[in-house]
Amino acid sequence: MEKFGTQFQSFEGPTDGPNLKNARAVGLYFGADWCIPFKKFCPTLISFYEQINEDIHQFEIIYIGLDENEDRYKESIRDFPWLYYEWKEHIKYQIYLEYKQHVPGFPCLLIINPNNSQVITNQGRGMIEKEGKEAFQKWLTKMSFK
After folding, report:
1. How many Å apart are CA 26 and CA 72, to the nearest integer?
2. 86 φ, ψ to 5°?
3. Which residue, among 47, 37, 75, 81, has the nearest Cα to 61 in the 3D structure?
4. What are phi and psi of 61, to 5 degrees?
5. Can you tell me whether residue 104 is helix, strand or coil?
6. pLDDT, tens digit (0-9, with 9 covering 90-100), for 85-123
7. Beta strands 83-84; 13-15: pairing state
8. Report field, pTM of the whole predicted structure over 0.85
9. How many helices (H) and strands (E) does the chain have?
10. Neighbouring residues of 74: CB distance < 8 A, sequence distance ≥ 6
11. Is the CA virtual torsion 6, 125, 87, 82 positive or negative?
12. CA-CA-CA-CA torsion sign (69, 119, 43, 129)
């Protein structure tokens, strides 16, 4: 998980992402405040994230925000319980360039294996919307075969 760096932000302030190190699955959430489907999906994703991590923290998300300006970016991250980068942090662009072939549009939730950074699915959003908490178990099952 070193490729994602060690300097993140969270609602509690700067962090090195301790939950990222122990996550069973990691989501890379690509989005932007100007994207209406992004705004509509965020409450669903927050609820999913909280349910999965209710008893033990096993799922972490890193927001890769590609907002047009810093004010819009700050608006996007305001309610996020997961990790994100500073507005000017260019590592998020490196991550986007590395994974962009898996990102069909915004918003996109890539689910990756934390052991090898391989993409498990680029359909994280659709799976959550259709299957709810069951999506998480399916991701773990897919990881066991990769």
Report:
1. 25
2. -60, 150
3. 81
4. -125, 140
5. coil
6. 887 777 778 888 889 999 999 999 999 999 899 999 999
7. unpaired
8. yes
9. 6, 7
10. 87
11. negative
12. positive
